[in-house]
Design goal:
It holds the Pfam family PH. It is a peripheral membrane protein. One of its GO terms (molecular function) is GTPase activator activity. One of its GO terms (cellular component) is plasma membrane. It comes from Mus musculus. The chain has four domains: 237 residues, Arfaptin homology (AH) domain/BAR domain (Substrate Binding Domain Of Dnak, Chain:A, Domain 2), CATH 1.20.1270.60; 124 residues, Roll (PH-domain like), CATH 2.30.29.30; 119 residues, Arf GTPase activating protein (Annexin V, domain 1), CATH 1.10.220.150; 180 residues, Ankyrin repeat-containing domain (Serine Threonine Protein Phosphatase 5, Tetratricopeptide repeat, Alpha Horseshoe). By secondary structure, it is an alpha+beta fold. The relative contact order is 0.04. It contains 23 helices and 13 strands. The strands form three sheets. The protein has a seven-stranded antiparallel beta sheet with strand order 4-3-2-1-7-6-5, covered by helices on one side. Strand 11 and strand 12 form a beta hairpin. Helix 2 packs antiparallel against helix 3, helix 10 runs parallel beside helix 16 and helix 19 packs antiparallel against helix 20.
Length: 777
């Protein structure tokens, strides 16, 4: 090994040694500067590389975002995803390269500078110090006088010691110099070699990565060539279409706006229309026309509009079959037309007369198409379902099972007279008046709506959902029964029923029939000739029976499952004490013949309704209402009981529903403070309890004994009624706590009540009926 400074020369401390030291020291100082500069440049390179990786990663994320945005284009999405994955791998390789650079250049060279060069500097300082001490000792030894023996010896001793120390430190210094000169080569070369190997690995990994990506890029390039050709072809086609459209006559473009009933997207017609405000002022906003100009469309048998495409459509007309469309020439604005439904009207304005005509024709065609589609659906249902004829009896289980699963339309049309409109005779009516129990055509149903719900409540047999008890009510009455009441004097008066299509005649006829009741025979009920004779016979006994009944005292009774009540004293069978005072002690057969068929001149309509409610005679109840009976009439002779309470005692769910639909107060109570819900709970009539709760009965009301329906049901251990009452109470409390006043309740509550309604109407034997004797009233 070649030494930078010779050890022999070190001992001599010759000028060659000093010159060699000076040269080495200058070289080491310059080496330190170079290494410091290289380390700083390496740190800057690493920091810049990390910033590059961060920027590269952001760029790669941008590519991925673009790939996700292009999810509808499989080629672009796949390519960008693959490229972003490859770039991510390259970022990982770059990160590894910079980590290795930091370890090989920065760490190793910094350690060499801090450790080895520091040792060299320390050795240099000691050498310079001892050199100075040696020079001082030599000078002092030379200056001592010969005759001063003591000083001579002292100077000689100091010089000897200083020389020994100098030789030792000089040799260490030379050793440090030679070691440093030897080590610096290995340290520099080792760090640089590691750095280069890191680059070799980086480029090798990148080459392998892109070698795998190469075939895909080649295929993509060929596909791109085809895409360029296709894009050029599409551009030419679009330019040609642009030129063709540009040459069209836009002055008559609105005339080509046509509707398409069979459009694939279900939209018959769409476009902008001005809409008049629906508030009380009925104004057009002139300052801000965008507030009233909306994008209208006819779709799914509805007229809807939107302000923005993302907005949910606002429904103007729920069912186009229920509306009419007409021109509006009596206002100052041009091109206006009006869409009128049973509940509201909407004034619209088109941009031209041709557009107005197109919209009107589109609405009219949509109405006709909707009727045709509904008719086709009904025909399909008729083919699938087995036909059934004859009237429906609510107590006939075999017929219930036969008709189970059929639509409301089919069940109701099985009733005599219901296959044609009750008022005009048009075939296949699809609407019904639920409080009258009749079927109607769509035109007559619109007139019935205009009468008000206190005269007629209209519902669709095909569009609306029907509760089971309401469907049974429709099957108990029918057009023939009601017309025998409301058209009793029609032939005598020489009045003819209006024909289909005579709108004005229909309106006058229907108002005279149901509002004015001109055709009701107030002196003749629904009686056959033989029944008329029975009425004359029963009339002679009326006064005697009334006086006897009013003088009698009500005897507490108990009821059994059959509805016949037992006297608590002697156990003999009798009718309930709350039955009419006129028939309290009559035999069963005679009472049914005499109490109902009393002369209409002498029988109060309210009392007639009261008795018929207990006897479950819906035709007679309808007749009483036609004669002007108050549905909430209270019998002062029998604890102020109402027809609805009598219907509860009679045990008929359908009778209760009929009274409620005709305005009966579900919370009207007798003198004992008991309303219909109390009585139904006492008797264990689960179906009636369910019905009253659905119709808003107050279950918190207490009777004169301070008992509410729930406490009565708990004492009687009637699990079904307790369940219904508690569920209703929980639902009421939940709605009050959440501020949902007027809402029906959650889905679970509605499902349970729906199940009870189905059982009470279709399978009453499944209900847990009240088996014990009722408490006395």
């Amino acid at each position: 090994m070649k030494m930078t400074v010779d050890f022999e020369e070190c001992l001599k401390d010759s000028p060659r040694f000093r010159a060699a030291l000076e040269e080495v020291e200058g070289d080491v100082a310059e080496l330190e500067l170079k290494l410091d500069k290289l380390v700083k440049l390496c740190i800057a390179m690493i920091d810049t590389g990390k910033a590059f990786c961060v920027a590269n990663k952001q760029f790669m994320n941008g590519i991925r975002d673009l790939a996700q945005y292009s999810s509808n284009d499989a080629v672009v999405e796949t390519s960008l995803t693959k490229f972003s994955d490859s770039l991510q791998e390259m970022i990982n390789f770059h990160t590894i390269l910079f980590d290795q650079t930091q370890r090989s250049i920065k760490a190793q060279l910094q350690n060499f500078v801090k450790e080895d060069l520091r040792k060299f500097k320390d050795a240099k300082k000691q050498f310079e110090k001892v050199s100075e001490e040696k020079e001082n000792a030599l000078v002092k030894n030379a200056q001592v006088q010969r005759n001063k023996q003591h000083e001579v010896e002292e100077a000689a001793n100091i010089l000897t010691a200083t020389r020994k120390c100098f030789r030792h430190i000089a040799l260490d210094y030379v050793l440090q110099i030679n070691v440093l000169q030897s080590k610096r080569r290995s340290e520099i070369l080792k760090s640089m070699l590691s750095f280069m190997y890191a680059h070799l690995a980086f480029f090798h990994q990148g080459y392998d990565l892109f070698s795998e990506l190469g075939p895909y890029m080649k295929d993509l390039g060929a596909q791109l060539d085809r895409l360029v050709v296709d894009a050029a072809k599409e551009k030419r086609e679009m330019e040609q279409k642009h030129s063709t459209i540009q040459q069209k006559d836009f002055s008559s473009d609105d005339s080509k706006l046509e509707y398409n009933v069979d459009a694939a997207n279900g939209i018959v017609m769409e476009g902008y229309l001005f809409k008049r405000a629906s508030n009380a002022f009925k104004t057009w906003n002139r300052k801000k026309p965008d507030h009233i100009r909306r994008w209208f469309s006819i779709q799914n048998n509805q007229l809807v509009y939107q302000k923005k495409f993302k907005d949910s459509p606002t429904v103007v007309v729920e069912d186009l079959r229920l509306c009419t469309v007409k021109h509006c020439e009596d206002i100052e604005r041009r091109f206006c037309f009006e869409v009128v439904s049973p509940t509201k009207s909407c004034m619209l304005q088109a941009d031209s007369e041709k557009l107005r005509q197109a919209w009107i024709k589109a609405v009219q065609t949509s109405i006709a198409t909707a009727y045709r589609e509904k008719g086709d659906e009904s025909e399909k249902l008729d083919k699938k379902s087995s036909p059934s004829t004859g009237s429906l009896d609510s107590g006939n289980e075999s017929k219930e099972k036969l008709l189970k699963g059929e639509s409301a339309l089919q069940r109701v049309q099985c009733i005599p007279g219901n296959t044609s409109c009750c008022d005009c005779g048009l075939a296949d009516p699809r609407w019904a008046s639920i409080n009258l129990g009749i079927t109607l055509c769509i035109e007559c149903s619109g007139i019935h709506r205009s009468l008000g719900v206190h005269f007629s409540k209209v519902r669709s047999l095909t569009l609306d959902t029907w509760e089971p008890e309401l469907l049974k009510l429709m099957c108990e009455l029918g057009n023939d029964v009601i017309n025998r009441v409301y058209e009793a004097k029609l032939e005598k008066m020489g009045v003819k029923k209006p024909q289909p299509g005579q709108r004005q005649e229909k309106e006058a006829y229907i108002r005279a029939k149901y509002v004015e009741r001109k055709f009701v025979d107030k002196y003749s009920a629904l009686l056959s000739p033989s029944e008329q004779e029975k009425r004359i016979i029963s009339k002679s006994c009326e006064d005697q029976r009334l006086s006897h009944a009013r003088a009698s005292v009500h005897t507490p009774v108990k009821s059994n499952d059959s509805g016949i009540q037992q006297c608590s004293e002697d156990g003999r069978e009798s009718l309930p004490s709350t039955v009419s005072a006129n028939s309290l002690y009559e035999p069963e057969g005679e009472r049914q013949e005499s109490s109902v068929f009393l002369d209409s001149k002498h029988l109060n309509p309210g009392l007639q309704l009261y008795r018929a409610s207990y006897e479950k005679n819906l035709p007679k109840m309808a007749e009483a209402l036609a004669h002007g009976a108050d549905v909430n009439w209270a019998n002062s002779d029998e604890n102020q009981a109402t027809p609805l309470i009598q219907a509860v005692l009679g045990g008929s769910l359908v009778t209760c529903e009929f009274l409620l639909q005709n305005g009966a107060n579900v919370n009207q109570r007798d003198v004992q403070g008991r309303g219909p819900l109390h009585h139904a709970t006492v008797l264990g009539h689960t179906g009636q309890v369910c019905l009253f709760l659905k119709r808003g009965a107050n279950q918190h009301a207490t009777d004169e004994e301070g008992k509410d329906p729930l406490s009565i049901a708990v004492e009687a251990a009637n699990a079904d009624i307790v369940t219904l009452l508690r569920l209703a109470r929980m639902n009421e409390e939940m709605r009050e706590s959440e501020g949902l006043y007027g809402q029906p309740g959650d889905e679970t509550y509605q499902d349970i009540f729906r199940d009870f309604s189905q059982m009470a109407s279709n399978n009453p034997e499944k209900l847990n009926r009240f088996q014990q004797d009722s408490q006395k009233f």
